Amino acid sequence: MREELHRVAEWIASYKETIEQRAIAPTVQPGEIAAKFAEVAPMSGAPMEQLLGELDALIMPGIVHWGHPAFLGYFGSTSNGPALIGEMIAAALNVNAMTWRTSPAATELEGVVLAWIREMIGLPDAFMGIVYDTASVALMHALAAAREAAGSEIRTRGLVGRAELKPFRVYASDQAHSGVEKAMVVLGLGEENVVRVRSDERFRMDVRELERAIVDDIAHGLRPMAVVATVGTTSTGSIDPVPEIAAVCCARELWLHVDAAYGGALAMLPERRDVMAGAELADSVVVNGHKWLFIPLDFSALYTRRPDILRSVFALTPEYLRGDAESKGAVDYMDYGIQLGRRFRALKAWMAIRAFGREGMEARIREHCRLAELFAGWVEHQPYYSTAAPVTMAVVCFRFQPPGMSDESADLLNEQIVEAVNASGDAYLTHTTLRGWRAMRVGVGNVLTVERHLQYAWQRIRDEGERLSRM
Ligand code: PLP
């Protein structure tokens, strides 16, 4: 095994060393990768050398290199040395962090990194944290707690056949993540009971619209349950007015969930602490390590001021796991979620935070914001290009519309530019729709991205724009 590990270390180091020379996105068609594999599991085993050969020949041709410094799509989740070593060690230990007793250090390190992140993003100590895989799953848990807080004994009695229950309503802006609907589907509350509240010209939830929607729902016999406010929306990185939303939630006794999956990290910067203003009033807050805290997929921290409610929904201890640790103050994280078995995610988080240090993390986040501002400046100075949303975080949405071109043709053109740049393998960006218009979108979140990568991407975008608008 030692020899094999050395070989794998070489493989990973070479991959990292050469990542910039690779085409970011593959050109494969659906089914092409799977077709290279046997339809049933091979009967005989194979040595690691052969496996690595097959990895290179069969799997790598279908990989999108998210770690490439010119990968500017979505919210790039940053892989880095310390965190990936943390993942390897966690795999070697393979402990299950379901209860304190099943691995005390895994549980306690989870508490430690959660407390570190909580303090770094400016949340009060009253918030208890728990790590899930993703923000969507964290949101589902938060809304499950909100549903229980609405006092309807759904844990014990369920939803079906209960005529006395009014439909539960959840409010989120038209920019909020689609995970809200998914959570409502899973919780049996129905995606139609998500009310999408209009956002203002800066893509922030319009609080008067929110109040109107709540009043209207009550008048129609519906039951407002929760509001999801976003700090760092998926398309533009906009920030909902959380303090005002919190006041509405407080007055009407609604659960407030703050989705700071992306934007929470920005509050690490002393000069940007304000982005989390009002989050201390929330019932739950999520921040993703794998978006902007340099922890690779997957790591999502949910914080709640009402852990007792979360626990009352999910604690259900089978006999074989009963112990006395909790009575001595230990946390059994299995009591706070649907999962029993839990990965030792805290290890990679600790490795990343410990290795970068707070200063290192802050410097990188600050640099990402600077790069996004720089890019936005280039866009604004280029004829017929314009930013499509204010730049609040490290995300730039922009649009190209040559003179005389109709809005519809420009929509198509912007999409085609993204496709052409991505197909080239040299850079990678995404598109989004804002107020019905197509826009290109660049997100900076990789530790390896420097100015020249953005310059190159910007050149490629303009070249494709020029070429395609002539066709
Ligand atoms: N919230 C926001 C604002 C997002 O942008 C995303 C995904 O990009 C999510 C939630 C969902 O994150 P996850 O993939 O961790 O479920």
Strand order of the largest sheet: 1-7-6-5-4-2-3
Q: Could you give the distance between the termini?
A: 57 Å
Instruction: State the share of residues found in helices, binned by percent.
Output: 40-55%
Contiguous uncertain segments of 5+ residues: none
Please tell me what the overall shape is.
globular
Question: How many runs of DSSP E, i.e. beta strands?
Answer: 11
Tell me which ligands are bound.
pyridoxal-5'-phosphate
Quick one: biggest sheet? Answer: 7 strands, mixed
| CATH class category of one domain | Alpha Beta
Indicate the CATH topology of one domain. Aspartate Aminotransferase, domain 2
Taking Cα atoms only, what radius of gyration do you get, to the nearest Å?
A: 24 Å
What portion of the residues fall into strands of 2 or more residues?
Answer: 5-15%
Architecture per CATH nomenclature, i.e. the level-2 architecture of one domain? 3-Layer(aba) Sandwich
Helical segment count: 14
Overall pLDDT confidence: 95
Order of helices and strands: HHHHEHHEHEHEHEEHEHHEEHEEH
The class by helix and strand makeup works out as alpha/beta
> So, the CATH homologous superfamily of one domain?
Type I PLP-dependent aspartate aminotransferase-like (Major domain)
Compact overview of the structure:
This protein has 471 residues and is α/β, with parallel strands linked by helices.
List the helices and strands and how they pair.
Layout: H1 2-18, H2 48-59, H3 81-93, H4 104-120, E1 128-132, H5 135-149, H6 154-157, E2 168-173, H7 179-186, E3 194-197, H8 207-219, E4 223-230, H9 242-252, E5 255-259, E6 284-288, H10 289-292, E7 300-304, H11 307-314, H12 346-381, E8 385-387, E9 395-400, H13 407-424, E10 430-434, E11 437-443, H14 451-470
Parallel strand pairs: 2-3, 2-4, 4-5, 5-6
Antiparallel strand pairs: 1-7, 6-7, 8-9, 9-11, 10-11
Helix pairs in contact: 3-12, 4-12, 5-7, 5-11, 13-14
The protein binds pyridoxal-5'-phosphate (PLP).
